[in-house]
Design brief:
There is one protein chain. The chain is mainly alpha-helical. It has two domains: 156 residues, Helix Hairpins; 58 residues. The protein is built from four helices and no strands. Helix 2 packs antiparallel against helix 3. It is rod-shaped. The termini are far apart. 3% of the residues are buried.
């Protein structure tokens, strides 16, 4: 490969890469759809001209057909009037009108096919435009989604996940330790209060028992104050007590 060919290849590779980087698919698609829509008026105008030519030929054909009928009537009238000279002149005009009519009929046939073809092309182009517009809308949406995903990926790549993970783990341990300490303190406090209450209740019960025992001993005269009979207990099943 020559030096010049290698140089041109290098230029194409370099500038091609730059152009490709600067191309925005969304803008290019939107501009393409605008260009296609801008061509629709011109295409409609061309179709209208083809159809107008067809209608002009149709009117010319009708006029020539009427001219042939009129000339035929004039020829017959001239023959009845024994005016062969006038009849001959009309016959010449009739032949020319018949040739013009035949030629116009052929042109009208071609024009009719051209009009039908032009309408088909116009409708096909319109359908293609609608399909391309729908596809462009889908591609633009896909491009926007891809760009958003790229931005998210870049943002995620810029995060220092290792440092954040260690920070979260450290804070979690501190919170767990604080919660465990608070729970232990609450449990200890509750246990201490319950224990004290139980001890007080037990002491109160012991005092009641001692008082009851002293009452029995006093009533039985065992405390040195003279013997006394113990108070009589009510009989089982009796609702009254003897005085």
């Amino acid at each position: 490969m020559g030096v010049w060919a290698r140089f041109k290849r290098s230029l194409r590779a370099m500038f091609g890469g730059i152009i490709e980087k600067t191309e925005d698919p969304e803008l290019i698609l939107q501009q393409t759809i605008r260009d296609m829509r801008d061509r629709m008026p011109e295409l409609n105008n061309n179709v209208a001209q083809v159809m107008a030519n067809e209608r002009l030929l149709a009117k010319s054909k009708e006029r020539l057909e009427q001219q042939v009928v009129d000339l035929d009537s004039k020829i017959k009238a001239s023959v009845r009037a024994n005016r062969d000279d006038i009849a001959t002149a009309y016959i010449g005009q009739l032949q020319q009108a018949q040739r013009d009519l035949q030629h116009t009929a052929q042109q009208l046939e071609y024009a009719s096919r051209a009009s039908q073809q032009a309408l088909k092309l116009r409708d096909s182009y319109k359908l293609q435009l609608e399909q391309r517009a729908a596809e462009a809308t889908r591609l633009v949406s896909q491009s926007k989604q891809a760009r958003m995903q790229e931005q998210i990926a870049q943002t995620m790549a810029s995060f220092q996940l290792g440092d954040d993970a260690s920070t979260f783990e450290e804070m979690r341990e501190k919170i767990d330790r604080r919660a465990a300490t608070a729970e232990a303190k609450l449990q200890l406090g509750s246990t201490s209060v319950d224990t004290q209450m139980q001890e007080i209740e037990r002491e109160a019960m012991d005092m009641q028992l001692q008082d009851k025992l002293l009452e029995y001993k006093r009533g039985m005269g065992l405390l040195g104050g003279g013997e006394k009979e113990a108070p009589a207990l009510p009989a089982a099943g009796s609702g009254e007590q003897n005085p």
